[in-house]
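ARCHIVE CARD
SHELF: 3
SLOT: left
DATA:
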Amino acid sequence: MINVLVVEDSAVVAEFLSYLLNSDPEIHVVGIARNGEEAIKAAINKKPDVITMDIDMPGMNGFEATRRIMEITPTPIVIVSASYDPKEVTTTFQAIEAGALAIVGKPKGIGHSDLEQSAREFMQTVKLMSEVKVVRRWPKRNDVVSVIEPRLELKRVPREIRVVAIGASTGGPIVLQTILALLPKTFPVPVLIAQHMASGFTEGFAQWLTESTGFPVHVAVDGQNPTFGNAYVAPDGFHLRLDKVGRIGLTKDEPENGLRPSASYLFRSVLNIFGANAVGILLSGMGKDGAEELKLMKEKGALTIVQDKETCVVFGMPGEAVKLDAASYVLPPEKIAAALKTLVAR
């Protein structure tokens, strides 16, 4: 039985989320908290297996509550938000930085055409995150990402790298933050990112990454030329690709591995345009998106990197790539950044 604490200031929404969760025989709602202060007390007293966390609440908001819970009684936390307010979206990613594991949109109401799909995504995320072993987060002096870059002895590749393509899902945002924070602002190639994310959060995600890393991150625009020292994130509901002259293309082609954007789609596009002159990276996430295409990239001479199991929230996508022998390197986030600086340097 998965014991869940629901943190939500709206009584109607809290009751609805509880109803959905209790409808699954493997889940039991052990309590409802109306604000951050109540959430902390309930987390200590009830010791839930997972917490669903609202962000915009009176008094202590979800960001601060997440930070405190991860300092006092580490628990898997899923951010549940329906707001498109840029301020709240930015705060949502601050909660991810503080230790929350994933973001899902609030399930649609009864009678809505997307109820079944949104409820299924919500329930699946809660179940998956309940299995994650979280660690205590110690108080930070500020909110700026700070990591020590490791020494990594790698030889430069004897060819020109033209692009870096990254696929990520659950657990990916904080890893991307770590990697981008360590890249120089003069990084000599563009970075393309397919991050699986709930609809409505991509713009806030790009803004949060830019502000917290100092590396410019943009929501990709169809037809634009990607430039060095910039990262481009696939927008909601679009595949990200490159056309024959290296410009960004956005498509509504069929989902791959049930996903759009898909890392598989991005990797295949990058391979078709740049071949061995590309780097493919697969980060934390559930499923197998990108694994087979990463193997194709390696077979064609491209550099391929996957995040190691020890630092992944979910070792699904990287694990599948490892099984296929698709990785040139298996590294933690800090060493991925160090590898990119060494291998891609000009």
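SLOT: right
DATA:
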Amino acid sequence: MIKLLCHPITKLLLFSGGFTSAILILRAINLTFDRAVSFAISQVTLMQQPLYAGVFYGRGFVMFALLFLICAGTLLVSVWMTKPKQQGTKLLGLWRNIDFFLLVMLAALIALFSIVGLRLFYAPGSAHLNIQLYEILGLPFIAYTAAMVTVSEFVARIRDKDLLRTLYWPRFFRLYPVWKPLGLLLSLLLIGSMIVVLATTREIVSAISFDPWPAHNFRITRIPSAVPTELLLPFSLLTLISTTYLVTFVLNLSAKYAEASAEKVRAERLKSELITNVSHDIRTPLTSVINYVDLLKKLSLEGEAAEYVSVLDRKSDRLKMLIDDLIDASKAGTGNETVLMQPVNLNEILGQIAGEFEDSFAVRDLSLVLTQTDEPIMISADNRHLWRVLENLFSNAAKYSLPGTRVFAKIRFNESGKPMLTLKNTSEAPLDLAGDILTEQFIRGDRARQSKGNGLGLYIAKNLVELMDGQFAIQVMGDLFILEIEFCGDEEE
């Protein structure tokens, strides 16, 4: 039964039955309809026709209306019961992607002009008429088809859960409200296009409805004589359609961007989880290795055995540091690190970290030039994370500065009155990367295997600064490395 109901021939019969019942409704409520049909068939004037058709006026209206409701309702039920095709046809895909707002508006315009034409064809009061049959049945067919196609498409899109997806303007304004620049611009374009469409439609309809026609010929031989109005309606419709599909393009672009961002976040999360899990798994056997190395160091070993234990000691310590850095980088990159903000004296903590690295700088023949203010500079920061940030930065300076040069560390206030730390040093190796790239994970790549670093120091420092609501920036000028950190001032200061 359902298969028979959903068959295309059944739908065509229901569509035809609905149209026939609509014509019968029109015939039952309009005295001039039967008379106009007689003229179209015989091609003679109204005065020569008998008025026999008028005796049917008003008869059968309820029956025809009921028949129309049955046919139209059954057609919509058949559309609802039809399963979406597992098709690869592009035509249906293009049709289903048409903005439903445009579809309703275009169908309404088609139906409106058809109804206006019907009103003129059936208007009484002219002594001579010359009406073609296709004009009498064609215009109702156009209006009926436009209405049924729109309603059927409405039912089909609700069935396929596609209606909200193809209401592009509501989706657009949900994403870009009118108080945002793009939303305001396109809302003005939409309102302007709609005003022009409605104004030109009203003018054309008024001209068709009230333009005087010759008494000997009732056929519409022209639309309003104002040429700009005739051209303005299709132009405004084209503008509205183009604007709508510009909105579609923006929505698709936003969806792809959101999808790419979500995929990037997911990949970062999975990578961080992998790093954390692997690091924890490695830490357990590494602890055993370190413990056994400590036991070997207590034995009286000489020669190559002692040298081997020394190598094991150094390498296990480096591996432990790398695992700790990996875990810290994973936590800092995903924002899972706990932050306890409190007032911190930046002058004091910078002086302490400078003292910690005094020996490291001396080994590399580096001179630290520290510029501080006389009064304390209080910032809002996590003391533990701030120490880790400064430790990473001074460690980088000690490892990679050109021996015999000076390292400049300066505390100052910027133009907006926020405390800043600037660190400058001359790199021993050429700096062939941009500043923002230097803060990425493992940026040193293969070079990390031949040095003490692992490429995570700046990445961890940057993320920890941002977790404390600060700003982290790097500039590279030749071999000059300039790092600037903007801190949040202490509100209680």
